[in-house]
Amino acid sequence: MRLLVGVVVVAIIQNVGDWLMNAFILKGPYEHVPSNFFYEGVHPLKPIIADILLALFLVFLYDRVASAFSGITGGLTYGFLTGLLVHVPTNLLVLYYVSAFPPTIPWTWMIGGIILFLINGLALGLIWQYVKGKPTG
Prior knowledge:
Layout: H1 2-25, H2 27-30, H3 45-65, H4 71-97, H5 104-130
Helix pairs in contact: 1-3, 1-5, 4-5
């Protein structure tokens, strides 16, 4: 039960966070990116599916290490560490190798992504603490 609840909650957090970041926070900086850099006609479900796959990965991994990252503090630590592992190298590569992006975009993705992963970790710590499921560890 915890796995299902975790995947649903993390997928919702990721989708809402991505939408806020890309539709509002980065709206201005995106106007400076050449239009041919973005795929035209991307199906609107693709980012949603990507966030669901990310949620599956994060929840599966948390389930395997939950004994080391239990509770609120452990969840926040898990979120911070996974956020660093995912967002820092990825966005540093974008920052240094994709000249079409103004630096604001990868920096916002990095900081916003780490914040989203902190929220995800907090949610997972709470879910594992309060939702019944088979013991992990």
